[in-house]
Each structure stands twice: as C-alpha cells, then as structure tokens.
Design a protein that fits this description.
Order of helices and strands: HHHEEEEHEHEHH
Protein name: LRAT domain-containing protein
Radius of gyration: 37 Å
Domain LRAT: 68-184
Region (Disordered): 1-27
Number of domains: 2
Shape: elongated
Structural class: alpha+beta
Number of helices: 7
Keywords: Hydrolase, Lipid metabolism, Membrane, Transferase, Transmembrane, Transmembrane helix
Largest sheet: 6 strands, antiparallel
CATH architecture of the largest domain: Alpha-Beta Complex
Helix content: 40-55%
CATH class of the largest domain: Alpha Beta
GO molecular function, one term: phospholipase A1 activity
Strand order of the largest sheet: 5-1-2-3-4-6
C-alpha cells in the first residue's frame, strides 16, 4: 500500500508535469523554427541561379594577357585587349558602348577617341564576344605582359580616331603585333571595289549595247 501511495500523483505534481511537457513542446517548436530560419538564411547565401549574363565572368578565367577580344555591336565589331583581373583596354570614341542602339554607329564618325580601362562585362554588355587572335598566323604576337603594360600606358589618353586608319581594331593590333591593320576596313574596301568594278562592268556592257544599236541603225 505504501508503494501504491508513492506512485499516486498529487494535483500539484500533475500540474508541474503538464507545465514541464508544455515547456518542452514550446522549446522544441522554437528549436525547429530556428533551424528552419537558419536553413532559409543558408539558401539566400548560396546566391542567385546562374544566368546567361554571368557566362562572360566564367569565360574570363580562360583569358590570357594580351588576348584580343572581338565584340559584335549591331552594325560593326568593337575590339579590346585583355590586361588582367577581368579588365580590358579599348579605344572608345563618343557614343561607343553596349546597348546604345543606333547611336553607337555614330561613333565611327568621330575624329577623336579616349583610351579606357574597363571591366570586360561593362564593355561587352549584352553583345556577343570572343577571343580573336587569328592574325597570330600572319604576324608574330608580342609577349602578353608587354602588350598589357603598353596598353595600360595609353589609358586616359585622347587620340586621333579614323575609321579608315585609326579605329579600335587598328589600336589593338598595334599593341599585339606592332601592325596598323584592320580587317574590317580591308573587307569593306574589297566590297566597295567589287561593287565599283561590277558597276563599271554593267556600265560598259550598256554602253557597248548602245553602240551596237547605233551601228545597226546606220547600216540600215
């Protein structure tokens, strides 16, 4: 009987146990919520999902000092030279830049340009770009650190700009090869000569045809 009396719970004991259980439940809920809260924070710290705009940042790991970078603008190709740590040096006339539409084309009419050092992604914007050292097959490139150091020496200078003899492609090819060449200008010149030659040929054929008609009339 004494043992049974010891196992019996008094009202005070029952209330204490209920409070203890409630306290454990509350504590457990707080722990669960705090863990969930920490997990949410961890998810935020993982950063945003990889997007296409982040791709150039990944590609920059493959760049080497002195690499020439060709950027496809809406109506022409812009050029820059890689100088390390994600930065490029390029010849930038007024209105030249990404996502400026038709006003970017007006940059080719400028007579002066500023040599700038900018982060690659700031120069590229949403335009496509790639490394283009194709002229290495025709000319011997200089050492990468030599190209980068010389490019840095031009930063901040305003230089004379000419779409025919001193554009952004001339600038980077001078740095890499010591050659003042621009394949854009060469291609455009060839096209112009081709169109001109074709026009002269057509004009000659028409003139010859008229001459033959005149002779036929005189014979009759």
């Amino acid at each position: 009987m004494g043992l049974l009396r010891c196992q019996q719970k008094t009202p005070d004991t029952e209330e204490e146990e209920k409070e203890e259980e409630q306290k454990k439940e509350r504590t457990g809920f707080i722990v669960k919520r705090s863990r969930s809260h920490r997990q949410k924070k961890l998810k935020v710290k993982t950063g945003p999902r990889l997007t296409d705009k982040m791709a150039p940042t990944l590609d920059m790991e493959k760049l080497r000092l002195g690499d020439l970078i060709e950027i496809s603008r809406p109506m022409y190709q812009h050029w820059a030279v890689y100088v390390g740590n994600g930065y490029v040096v390029h010849l930038a006339p007024p209105c030249e830049g990404p996502s400026v539409g038709s006003s970017s084309v007006m940059s080719v009419l400028a007579d002066s340009a500023l040599v700038k050092k900018e982060f690659l992604w700031a120069v590229v914007g949403d335009d496509e770009w790639h490394v283009n050292n194709d002229l290495d097959r025709e000319h011997s490139p200089r050492l990468g650190f030599v190209i980068a150091n010389e490019a840095m020496g031009w930063v901040g200078r305003t230089v004379q700009y000419s779409i025919v003899s001193g554009n952004c492609e001339h600038f980077v090819n001078n740095l890499r090869y010591g050659k003042n060449v621009s394949r854009q200008v060469t291609s455009a010149t060839n096209v112009a000569f081709g169109v001109g030659a074709a026009g002269l040929a057509v004009f000659g054929i028409l003139a010859l045809a008229r001459g033959l008609r005149g002779e036929n009339k005189n014979t009759e």
